[in-house]
Amino acid sequence: MEIIDKNNIPPETFDSGEARGIMARVLIGKANGAGNFVMRLFEIAPGGYTPRHAHPWEHEIFVHSGEGSIYSNGEWTSVRPGMAIFVPPDEEHQLRNDGTEPFVVVCLIPSGYQEL
């Protein structure tokens, strides 16, 4: 077993045209010996957003804190802490922070793809 403290993982920041105000960490991945899944933590600053994108794998998102929305099928849906989101393969999606505090989500993807 391994217990990981997110504060011991330096974040990668993304702050360009496609992504704004993102701090991302791989909590559990290949470096930990995980062979099936990658667990990532995204902290999206107020006014921030992830790129709008699609990919051939599913992933799962858990909303930890903050106020935000997810884009899917041409519309935005508000999400709140405690909600889980299933994104099927090839579905275009995007997250954005709609509040004044960080919007924090945990995201799981299958291993074998770029971790961040």
Architecture overview:
- It is a single chain.
- This protein has 116 residues and is mostly beta strands.
- It has one domain (11-110): Jelly Rolls, CATH 2.60.120.10.
- 0% of the residues lie in helices and 51% in strands.
- The chain has no helices and nine strands.
- The protein has strands at residues 12-14, 20-28, 37-49, 59-65, 68-72, 75-79, 84-87, 93-97, 103-110.
- A six-stranded antiparallel sheet has the order 1-2-3-9-4-7, with no helix packed on it. The chain has a three-stranded antiparallel sheet with strand order 6-5-8, with no helix packed on it.
- A hairpin with a 2-residue loop joins β5 and β6.
- The radius of gyration is 14 Å and the shape is globular.
- The two termini are 23 Å apart.
- 20% of the residues are buried.
- The mean pLDDT is 96.
Task: List the topology elements.
Elements (H helix, E strand, L loop, with lengths): L11 E3 L5 E9 L8 E13 L9 E7 L2 E5 L2 E5 L4 E4 L5 E5 L5 E8 L6
Antiparallel strand pairs: 1-2, 2-3, 3-9, 4-7, 4-9, 5-6, 5-8
Structure, briefly:
This protein is mainly β. It has strands spanning 12-14, 20-28, 37-49, 59-65, 68-72, 75-79, 84-87, 93-97, 103-110. It has a single domain, classed as Jelly Rolls, CATH 2.60.120.10.
Q: Count the domains.
A: 1
What's the architecture, going by CATH? Answer: Sandwich
- In terms of DSSP E residues, the strand content is over 45%
The CATH H-level homologous superfamily:
Jelly Rolls
- The run of helices and strands is EEEEEEEEE
Oligomer: single chain
CATH fold description: Jelly Rolls
